[in-house]
Each structure stands twice: as structure tokens, then as C-alpha cells.
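If your schedule permits, I should be very grateful for your opinion on a structural question. Please examine both parts with care and let me know of anything in them that strikes you as inconsistent. The record follows directly beneath this note:
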Amino acid sequence: MGTFLSSSLFIKIKTLLKVYESFNKTLAFTLLFSFCPALFFAQATATDIKQISDGLWIHSDDLNASGKYKEALTLNQKLIKHSQKIEYSEGIVRGYCNIAIILSKLGKYQESFSFVRLAEKENKENSDKGMESVIYSTKGFIYSSLDFQNRSLHYLKKALVMSETIDDKHKRGKVRAFTYSHMMYIYENSEKMDSAFYYSKKAFHELNNAYNSSVLAYCYLYYKKDIDSSEYYLQYAGNEIKRKKSSPFERYTLYRFFGELHEQKKDYDSSAYYYHKALQIGKETHLPKLTRDSYWFLCNIAELQNDEKSAAAYLRKYTILSDSLSRSQKKQMDFPIQQYIKDSEEAYSLKEDRLKYLIGLVTIIFTLLLLAFIKRNKNKETLFKNTIEEKDEVIMEREIETRQLKDKVKDGFEEVVYLAKKNNPEFLTRFIEVYPDFYQALLKIYPDINSETLKFCALLKLNFSTKDISEYTFVTPRAVQIRKNRLRKKLNISSEENIYVWISQL
């Protein structure tokens, strides 16, 4: 949570400062400083945020993917407390969502939704659209785990829309890849393989890491029966693992899918080789789920190789480890979740009480200061009223002047038009008096203009048509047109331009 202050409270405080500036700046600052210290002391540092962010977005995901749920729960609980201490709202929301996903995997759906509600309550104060995307993707995951696939798709699609607001490219990619991956699983379970394949590609293109590449290889292998493409993406995943630091789960996934690829190619020896490498990762990292699954794949390969003794041995190890995992998962479900939820709810209740108290206090101060401001400035109202009246008088005078000027221009226009129609010798002199700016502009581009040409330009300025000019100057329309063409050439007016428009804009 950034501070205990809501956005509406910030608006009140800004108003308070503006009103009170003319009254007593020092006192206003002192009051604000006393009641709103969170505004002046930002405790979070870039290093703190980086450490929390890495823990929430990288280390937690690695533990989760590896099946170390208890360690992941403990890590997120610590990171949430640290985020609360430095008032890092994004860290709090992400931590709650991480815990919700882990609890969903453990089958504790009611508690999972409780943590989603905590995330929503935290994000409500900041209205962070990026974190809203994380919340929607978490909801989509939980509903998918409960087999409410339509409801899940509803939230996953909303998550994709909101994810566009996440500024951090890596975080945005992780959210979108996570969302696309679970849309793929939904369509796979619905046997809509084309859609599943489409979203597996979207996940890879959003975050082209080793894991997403391996999953895409799996989709090519089973959805498209395209062994070459499957092998290509597994090779890509292998290169990514060599190039970057990878998690045990990413390496396990790569070896497992290489094993499945060779199993489809009926190269059982190579398949067994990769399953053994996957098994080795499970044992070395003490990840029992990966070890258990590797025994199952090795059992299948042994059966395909007609090695019944090895198949039976692997099946026995698989069964023993499955039972052990089932007992272990029950212990992990004893994590004190209910008390943690209760503590978090109480913390939010306390913050809400403090916020209400602070809002009430600031409202009282604001009211008192506003009354003092009104009382002090009551005498200014008369001065302000007089000033407005003076301004109105000035505006009225200017409007009268403008109206008179318009009338004068109108009268001048009508007069020169009348003189032009009568072919009166005074026409040109009067035209220059009414349109001095036009006359000066024309002289700049045509300094040696004679009176006849000037008169012709004046008639064009007055918008006389060819027929009108012909009638009032006693020449033929053909002669008028020839003069227009000569004038175009003299003034460099292109044939594409309207000569009347050109003259009027001069």
C-alpha cells in the first residue's frame, strides 16, 4: 500500500493548500506535515524493490514450478511483510496472488480466493491496471483448477487486455505467457487442439524462454505430429539453457520432452537416456514430483523394450514416491493459512479506521480554514465586483468600436462597388483608401503596376465576375479573360489556383 491516503483525500489536501496559501502557508504546511508523514518520507529504495521483485517474479516461480510449495509460501509471506514495511503495493499484490496460486495447487480453493480478495483490496487503493491483470490471471488459474473453464477464460482474457498497461517488459511477458499457457491447457482439456496449439505459440512468442519452447515442441509433437518442428524447438530450448541461467524445472522439462520425442521416433534407447537425465535432476535437487514422473516414463520405456524386470522396478519406485508425496502434501496443507488471512484482514481494517480518522480530521481543518478564508476575503468581494463592472464597460466600449469599424468597412465596400459599376474616375482612389493593406501588398510583388492593371486587380478583389467586368468597363468577355491570363503570368499565379482566391488572400 503506497500510503494510507486515498485519491479523494489527496484532492482535499491539494484544495486545502491552495485555499490556505493566502492565509498562512507556514501553518498549513505544519498541519499537513503532522498528519500526513507518509507523503514526505518514502521508505522504499530501488535496491529494496529490486530484491522483492526478483523474489516475487523469479525465485517464487522457480520454487512453485519445482513443487516446493511450503518454501514458496514462506518466501512470499516474508516478501509481503517486507513490501508492507516499505509500502510497496505491487509487491503486496503479487505476493498475495503467488500464495493464491500455490494454495490452489494444494487444493485449498477457499483460502486461495481469500488471498485473491486481499490482493483486490490492496489494489483498490492504487487502481494499478498492471496488477489488476495479475489478479485476473490468478482468478483464471484458480477457476481452471476447479474445472470452471468458461469462467476461467473470461478472467484470462481480461488479464490479457489489462496486461498491456504493465510497463516492465519482462513482467508483462511473464503475465501474458502465463495467461496464454493456461488458455492452452483449457483448450487442450476441451480437445480443441488447434486453439491449444495457437495459444502455445502465443506463449512462446511472448516469452521465448526454454520452458515455453519445450512446451511448444510438445504441442508440435502431439497436436501436429510434426517431429521436425518439435525437435527444432527442443534444440532452441537447449541453446537457451546453455546461454542463460536456468531452473532445474526448465532442464527437467527439456529432457522429459526430448525423451518423449525419441519415444515417438521409436528410438527407445535415446528416450531412456533423456528420461534418466530428467530423473537425475529430480534426485539431485530433491524434487520428488519430478523424480516420481521420471520413474513413470522409464517404466513405460522399459515395457516398450520388453524389459519387464526394469518396468516392475520403476513402477514400484513410482508407487512408493506417489504415496510419500500424497502424505507430504497433506502436511503442507497444514500451513497456518487461516490465521494469516485473519491477521491480514485485521491489518486492512486498522488501516481503514486510520484513514477514516484522517479524512475526518482533514475535513474539519479544511472547513475551519475555508471559513477563515471567506471571512478575511469578504471585503474583497466588493472590489472584485467593481473590477468586473469596469471590465464589462471596457468590453462594451470595444464592442461598439468593433461594430463601428465593421459598419465603416461595409460602407466603404458598398461605395467602391458603386463607383466601379459606374466606371467612375474616383473609383481607384477610393479603393486604395478602403483597402490600403491590399494595395501595399500588391505593390511589393508588382512595383511598376499601372493604373489600369491596378483597377483590374481591384475589380477582382471586389469579386467582380468576368461578365461584370466586361459590362462595367465596356470590353468583351474575351478581352477580360485575356487580361486575367496576363495577370496570372505577371504575378506567377499557377493555372491550378483560383485567381479570385489568390487575390483575396493577398
User: Anything to note?
Assistant: Residues 378-421 form the longest helix (44 residues). The chain has three domains: 7-35+350-376, 46-259+336-345, 385-504. Residues 385-504 form one domain. The radius of gyration is 41 Å.
